[in-house]
Amino acid sequence: MGLGVVRKVEPPIPWELDGTIDLALYNVETGELNVVATGTNEVYYYPVKWDRDGTLTYEKHFINNEEIERLEYKK
Questions:
Q1: pTM beyond 0.90
Q2: Confidence band, pLDDT 50/70/90 cuts, at residue 18
Q3: Domain range for 17
Q4: % of the chain residues with pLDDT over 90
Q5: Overall number of domains in the chain
Q6: CA–CA gap between residue 22 and residue 41 (Å, rounded)
Q7: d(CA 33, CA 45)
Q8: How far is 24 from 46, CA to CA, in rounded Å?
Q9: Are 11 and 20 in contact (CB under 8 A)?
């Protein structure tokens, strides 16, 4: 399962209460959580979809300029 996990960052993002968002994979069977893309005070990540072939599509959001990159992760 692909998740966005909220994490505090330094320096804090002035308009965000809880920090940034890391992209993580959660294994339902083992309870293991693995971060695959680490957010910063400049970017955060958002999972979009998981294809049948195992490809996770996600977005990288740039905080200061509203630019968005669509990326893929495949283990």
A1: no
A2: confident
A3: 2-74
A4: 59
A5: 1
A6: 11
A7: 15
A8: 10
A9: no
